[in-house]
Each structure stands twice: as C-alpha cells, then as structure tokens.
Amino acid sequence: MELVSDISLIRGEEELFDRTAHLFVAATDIACAADDLYTWALSRPSLTRQGERLVRDKRIRKLYRPGVLLNEQTAEHLHHLSGLGAQIRIGTEEINETILLDERVAIMAGDEGKAVRSYSVISRPELVQGILSLFETAWLASTTLETFDARFADIRMEAPQILEFLTTGCKDEKAAKSLGMGVRTYQRRVSELLVALGVTSRLQVDARARELGLL
Predict the structure, then answer these.
(1) Gene3D superfamilies, from UniProt (predicted)?
(2) Domain identity same for 80 and 161
C-alpha cells in the first residue's frame, strides 16, 4: 500500500488487509494491542505453516485484555504463538486497539459499534511515536501470558457456571453453594470475571460474553 498522505481512513477489515498485507509481510517488528483475538483478522486462531514461519522470523509483541483467556481455544492459540517466539502479555486496563509496524506505521481501530468498522493507517512520524509511547506504557504495566494464565486457571474452569448463574439471575448464596465455595469467594470470582470480560457491572455480562463466544 502506498500512502498518499500521512493518515488514511479505511472501512472494513477486508479492505484493510487487502491494502496493507504487504506491510505486514515486510515488517520485522510488529506490536499489536487488542481487546480480543477478533479485532484483527491476522490474529484469529488459525495459522498456516507460512504464517508460523513469519511469526518466527519477526519480533512480535501482542497485548490483550484478560477476556482472551476465558475461551480455551483462544488461550491455547496464544500459548501456541508464544511457543513460536511471539511475546504475549495481558493487561487489565483499557487499551487503544492498535498495530504498529516497524515503529513507522500505526493502524488504529475505530468504533466497533459501527456496522462497518473503520481503521486509520498513520505514517506521520510524530503521531506514530506518540502511539508507540502509549503502547510501551501499557506493555510495561501488563503481565506475561504465562504468569497471568497461571493464576487464571481456576476462573477459566469456573467461568461457564458463573456466567450461567449471572445471566439467569441466580442469587449469590445459591450459586456459591452450587460451586462448593463461600459467598465471599464466589463474589470475588465474579469480580475477577468482570475484569476479565472488560465490563463494570453484572448487567453487562450477558452481552459481552456473547461477543466473546462464551454463551
């Protein structure tokens, strides 16, 4: 893709990767921040042998929210990428969904609430450096995949049942008893699950869990 200006607006993932695919192939340093694996098509849990070779040949850093670890398939995919040499970290704070290529080009995802999501491709050096600085700050504040996942194993096993209790309006006391734990422990698990889902209240759980394919 030859940029005719410092900032280009692209609508839809298909057009984005049709017009920037060669940038990904040429890049040797790729940094990616996303809420989940489905923001960027190239991050989805399927890798060809050619894709695996490209991962090994590049410096790749991926930063995700905890929700990616609630789904066993996506968690396995991340560990597979890590085994190929990609650096993967998990952060609990809100992040700007961004891809940085060789610290020269930034791709920023627009509002996902739109029917067709837009993406900004930015090559203006001072803007790219500002976006890179935000990514580096979030990266340093995050936790390695292995460390985060080690303490996340319990909640991943319990998540399907807790989600069912939350979406059906089950009382905490009854839900805790069903899981064989105290009410306070159950409520702590719920709080951890809300963080993982990236929501702030139980009322948001159903919609977000469906977005992530957990329900």
Answers:
(1) Winged helix-like DNA-binding domain superfamily/Winged helix DNA-binding domain
(2) no
